[in-house]
Amino acid sequence: MSEYLISEELPRRFRSEFPALEEYAYLNHASVSPLPMRSAEATKRYLDDRMRYGSLHFEDWLAARNDARTRAAQLINADPEEIAFTGNTSHGLSIVAQALEWKPGDTVAVSYPDFPTVVFPWQNLARRGVKVAKIMRHGGSLRTEDVERVLDQTEARLLMVASVDFATGAACDLDALGALCRERGTLFCVDAIQSLGAAPMDVHRSSIDFLAAGGHKWLLGPIGFGILYVRQSREELLHPSTVGWCSVEDGETITLDFKLRKDAGRFEPGTQDIASLYGFAASLSLLQEAGVENIHAHTLGLGQYIRDCCAERGLALASPDGPGERSAIVSIEHPDADRAVKALSAEKVVVTLRDGRIRVAPHLASTTGDIDRLFQVLDAV
């Protein structure tokens, strides 16, 4: 039986928030999560309000923005002033890449292979003479000793990693990597989209300087909305490449006094997606009520249940089992993964095909019953 605790309370309390789960065994949160009912309702209330009253309740919109910013900051142990809202992870990482002052010959060390978002913003700096040094993953795993070696060989100015590998679910040791960066004076940037909401995150404990995550996966939020964290002591290192009326101090006064804000709000140039702000705040409230520590334990427990089911059937795993490497993602080797995923879809079991494997990604409202449905179909393939 699992060495981790599979919660009965989390599905009991929160499964009704997800009408999709009435019909589907939804195990695809590493791609896009179903939107919680409270998030959809919050968005609808805002849209109805604007339809009926236009901008009369503008102050309420500002309050909703502050609420979302505060909740996002609490999720990663940051200050609200260190949070900027973005369109997605790619947007957030590109803000950092373009805002730093680079010199020809500067090097960025990047986990590789990885999702394109982790790599492309830095390769895009080649025209400015910036080099990309690849830190090779081994079966999805990012070894701390490999990171240390590349940092020392290249004297990289910035380290860029994904907190969890999107293909295998391998989690990296952010605390150890942050310590390496701190010792060397290297900037530390993290793509957290595959862990934020499913695992605890503390930007101070891990010495993270910049962090970006879209809201539509483990954060259970809207598509096209995300966050960027910029450590307060690093904000002056970044000069925004895009600015507007909201980037400056006292932007609401509509003056032509160009003084950039002293916080992460300098990276929010203009009017934001208020509808998504309402939905995002509601999604974060659900995660806070559930407790990310509880979600983490629950998803790791379900991951062990998946591993046990695979072992019983002789199915191998692509996901590593090293200390601290497990995440909410489990990647299953299958002799005909493409056909298996199609069969699962036909039976309303939602997973994803990644790198020729079956990627399974349960969340807080998932149950062993959902996993049983998965293997019932696989047994028949």
From TrEMBL:
Top-rank taxon: Bacteria
Keyword Manganese tagged: no
GO molecular function: transaminase activity
InterPro entries membership: Aminotrans_V_dom, Aminotrans_V_PyrdxlP_BS, PyrdxlP-dep_Trfase, PyrdxlP-dep_Trfase_major, PyrdxlP-dep_Trfase_small
Pfam hit, one: Aminotran_5
PROSITE patterns listed in its UniProt record: AA_TRANSFER_CLASS_5
Cofactor(s) demanded: pyridoxal 5'-phosphate
Keyword Acetylation annotated: no
Sequence ranges assigned to domain Aminotransferase class V in this UniProt record: 26-357
UniProtKB keywords: Aminotransferase, Pyridoxal phosphate, Transferase
Similarity remark: Belongs to the class-V pyridoxal-phosphate-dependent aminotransferase family.
Protein name: Aminotransferase class V-fold PLP-dependent enzyme
